[in-house]
Specification:
This protein is of the alpha+beta class. The chain contains 13 helices and five strands.
């Protein structure tokens, strides 16, 4: 027979939070010194919106186990709900100290940067979207069973549709690229240019826009026909700007510096130190000393321009990560800043 904690976890995956709370409360005396008990009960309270009871149980769990990433994520969610973003950010940074690749904490930090004002957070709490930044519960077994049944019916319908309905396979998952497929005239271009363009299409379908941009730069910097270059520019218009956690193809400073034209308009995630900071009411710029975050290995200096003023200024005394779009100022590589990250902890 499963324990009360295991049964409650299953109920929570089924989104039966009140039932989970009742199940756990019936065993409260037995599990008084259990981390899993207090964490699970606190999480159930969090999902029903009882942040007071959730905080009480999370504090009890914290006394038993201090450094647990999911517990810190849950406690951060309480501060986030209350609009105390500064405290929430500190918890997220603590999580990243424990688990540098924790995607939940990274996504939450991006949310705070993009939607960190109190009014916006209230709207997310009100319509339930704030739960995206709670510790995940896992897939809902009931929905999985329902989906399996639906897929089975869909498969049967699909077999019939395949045989009897007209078909059109020209649509892609992201955009209709039928107009961008190489024509007979385009195919007269050099073999290497055609290969680069077709690779760009493949990367686009894989949502690897950065890799696609590099291939399109090969086309634009070649002797390709005007028609093919126009198709390359059209494909570029479908690209999406990435975040720190969604950048799939990062390029090193050495790669970019050696062939800067090949990487024009690509995004990079580079770290280092900031120097020569200049900012006004509407913009900010600084020199990024790439690779110099530990004050040992300077790979190069790149000017970073933000055409907006970030909510938090950059601290020249701390390492900084910059996400930016590559540009050229004469022969010099520059970055159009999209975002930057610095730990709030002292070094």
């Amino acid at each position: 027979m499963k324990s009360a904690i295991d049964r409650a976890r299953y109920m929570m995956r089924c989104r039966e939070f009140s039932e989970a709370i009742q199940t756990l409360n019936e065993k409260k005396e037995l599990y008084e010194e259990s981390f899993d008990f207090h964490y699970t009960l606190g999480l159930a309270f969090l999902y029903v919106g009882d942040t007071g009871s959730a905080a009480e149980n999370f504090e009890a769990a914290r006394k038993i186990k201090i450094n647990d990433a999911n517990l810190l994520l849950a406690q951060a969610a309480i501060h986030l709900r209350r609009g105390n973003t500064e405290r929430a950010v500190q918890y997220y940074l603590d999580i990243l100290d424990l688990e540098p690749q924790n995607q939940n904490a990274k996504r939450a930090l991006e949310f705070v940067r993009a939607h960190g004002d109190y009014e916006e957070i209230c709207r997310w709490v009100d319509d339930g979207r704030i739960e995206l930044y709670y510790p995940p519960l896992g897939a809902n077994p009931k929905k999985i069973r329902a989906l399996a049944a639906a897929l089975l019916c869909g498969a049967l319908v699909g077999v019939l549709a395949f045989h009897f309905w007209p078909r059109d396979f020209s649509k892609s998952e992201r955009a209709d690229l039928s107009s961008l497929v190489l024509s007979v005239d385009d195919s007269a271009n050099a073999r290497g240019v055609k290969k680069a363009y077709n690779k760009a299409l493949e990367y686009f379908e894989q949502r690897r826009d950065n890799a696609a941009q590099r291939e399109l730069n090969r086309v634009l910097n070649s002797a390709a026909s005007a028609g093919l270059k126009q198709k390359a520019r059209s494909l570029m218009s479908y690209f999406e700007a990435p975040g720190f956690d969604s950048l799939k193809d990062n390029f090193s400073y050495e790669e970019v510096a050696s062939q800067s034209a090949l990487y024009l308009d690509c995004y990079v995630d580079w770290s280092g130190r900031a120097s020569n900071l200049v900012q006004d009411e509407n913009s900010m710029s600084f020199d990024l000393l790439v690779g110099y975050e530990d004050l040992k290995d300077l790979k190069g200096v790149v000017r970073v321009y933000f055409d907006f003023l970030p909510e938090r200024g950059v601290d020249v005394e701390k390492p900084v990560r910059v996400l930016g779009k590559i540009g050229l100022d004469g022969n010099n590589v520059v970055l159009k800043g999209r975002s930057f990250y610095q730990s709030v902890k002292e070094f």
